[in-house]
Design goal:
This protein is α/β, with parallel strands linked by helices. Helix content is 55%, strand content 18%.
């Protein structure tokens, strides 16, 4: 319940502090006095767009503060608790400050973005009439009203949860399938690369050995010939180094008989002879090995070329090919085995689809059963509220399964029996929309415990007995919730539990709107004024007293 509205420096309002109570509060005043400014202020504090034009001339900022008393079952309570915005569990204070360059919003003294203010506002107060907060124009609100009338709110919540879970599972399945497709494509490429590696079968250390062998085989004939020449030079023929050394040894032995010191030289020559013999043995061994090694140089060069090609293809040094082969083999192994996860998720999706469709069928049945009954009840109420033979229809249109069910819900209106049904936005004027909203609220009073309701000029275009019925309906509605109504009709004003009078006057050369809570005597005077005439007469006062007595 809105318990107090504080407005400062707002358009032509200097400062107003308006206490409000339960039941029906009516707001009256001369045309242009500023009655709709109260609605505008409520819209501002609950998240409507604002600009510097709302700031009173001469002021730096405009400010609106609304205090709400929260019932135990209020949806705003849970909303505030979820966002850690609860200062007092039984009360909520929302505040909006508009400056020339920006506006600020507060919930229980905590700065919040405007979107949060709007979300909270939908749970605290509902504006009906010629105002930008007309929720009835939205299809989601119309759907919720039908669900409330059908007693299907629990089914709607269950379905929304089931479809959300289904959509999540589908998203995971899609992501897993995409990943599996990517993995399959990668696995195919890696398999192709592995086939190339397996055809070459590179071994660790093989590249270095291939290079050494290739160099050796490329010069094999030169090596064999050179070694043969060296062996001949060292040990074969009369001119061989070993033969010359033998001659030198014989001469040295002859001379050593005359000079003993030459014995040392003899030992050196003997050692040289031994080294030459060992060198010849080594040369013969190496030369023999070269002669026995296959000279298939073309095959060797072909394998070296294949190593080069594979290394170039993978942009890696040739000596690292064995390591890359092992890495590719490990990757290929890791890319296998997504099929089980995809299959399990597909089973989960099938189960969730079945559950969601079952819930949607139950919800659809309730909606189809309730739609004609709601339309009939609201149509009857609309007739009582002065909308003549206008009819309402709750149209259900088949749709793909979503969190909202398998059908769209839209309220259509036909202004006359022979006119076609069209959406509210194309048929209803501001006053008509207010009365349609009132008709819905009256019909839903027993099943939908809505927030504080504000009706802006719900009585436009009506009078007489219909105006009295509108007042009675508003008063009836106020038994289960707080209602604030701006009205021009005395029949409606007389039904109020609290009567607020808005007046515009001059103070110190400035135009200022003020609000007064009327006493019984002042109410008589105001309703007598509303009854008409240049001057209030005893007759209009008497009629006003009769209207207030009911």
């Amino acid at each position: 319940m809105l318990s107090e509205l504080l407005i400062r420096s707002f358009v032509v309002i200097d400062e107003l502090r308006i206490p409000l109570g339960p039941g029906l509060s009516v707001v009256t005043g001369e045309t242009g006095a500023g009655k709709s400014l109260l609605v505008d202020a409520l819209g501002l504090v609950l998240g409507s767009r604002a600009d510097a034009g709302v700031i009173r001339t001469g002021a730096d900022t405009a400010e609106v503060t609304a205090t709400f008393d929260l019932a135990l079952e209020s949806p705003a309570r849970a909303w505030l608790a979820e966002r850690d915005l609860t200062a007092d569990a039984d009360q909520c204070i929302v505040r909006r400050v508009v400056a020339p360059d920006r506006s600020r919003a507060f919930i229980n003294a905590t700065p919040v973005p405007l979107q949060l203010l709007r979300e909270l506002g939908e749970r605290l107060l509902d504006l009906h009439g010629q105002h930008e907060h007309q929720a009835l124009m939205r299809k989601d609100v119309q759907r919720d009203l039908l669900d409330a009338y059908a007693g299907a709110e629990g089914e709607a919540r269950a379905l929304a949860g089931a479809v959300a879970a289904l959509q999540s599972a589908r998203g995971r399945h899609r992501a897993l399938q995409e990943a599996a497709e990517q993995r399959a494509a990668r696995a195919s490429l890696v398999r192709y690369q592995l086939d190339e590696f397996e055809a070459l079968h590179p071994q660790v250390g093989e590249w270095q050995e291939l290079n050494a062998t290739e160099r050796r085989l490329a010069h094999a004939q030169e090596l064999i010939s050179g070694i043969s020449d060296l062996v001949t030079l060292l040990s074969e023929g009369e001119d061989a180094l070993s033969a010359a050394l033998e001659k030198a040894m014989n001469s040295l032995r002859h001379l050593t008989r005359h000079e003993p010191r030459l014995a040392e030289v003899e030992g050196l020559l003997e050692s040289a002879g031994v080294e030459i013999s060992e060198a010849v043995i080594a040369l013969n061994r190496i030369g023999g090995g070269l002669e026995s090694e296959p000279l298939d140089l073309s095959a060797l060069e072909s394998r070296v070329a294949r190593w080069h090609d594979l290394a170039r293809k993978h942009h890696t040094p040739a000596e690292e090919l064995p390591t890359l082969w092992a890495r590719l083999a490990a990757e290929y192994e890791s890319l296998q085995g997504d099929e089980d996860a995809v299959a399990k998720l597909a089973q989960e999706i099938a189960q969730r689809e079945h559950e969601a469709m079952d819930l949607a069928a139950v919800l659809s049945a309730k909606r189809h059963a309730a739609a004609p009954a709601l339309a009939q009840a609201v149509t009857a109420e609309m007739g009582r509220l002065g909308l003549g033979s206008a009819r309402l229809q709750a149209a259900l249109t088949p749709e793909e399964l979503s969190v909202n069910g398998c059908e769209g819900v839209e309220f259509l209106v036909s202004p006359t029996p022979d006119a076609s049904f069209k959406p509210l936005a194309r048929i209803a004027s501001g006053g008509e929309l207010s009365r349609i909203s009132l008709a819905l609220q009256v019909v839903l009073a027993d099943v939908c415990a809505g927030p504080t309701l504000v009706f802006d000029e719900v009585d436009v275009g009506i009078g007489g007995a219909v105006a009295e019925i509108v007042g009675l309906r508003l008063h009836e509605l106020s038994k289960t919730r707080q209602v604030l109504c701006i009205t021009h009709l005395p029949q409606v004003a007389a039904q109020g539990d609290t009567h607020l009078l808005v007046e515009k006057g001059q103070t110190a050369g400035r135009t200022i709107s003020s609000v007064e809570i009327l006493t019984q005597a002042r109410r008589i005077e105001e309703i007598a004024r509303m009854l008409g005439g240049i001057a209030v007469s005893a007759r209009t006062r008497a009629l006003a007293r009769d209207m207030l007595r009911g």
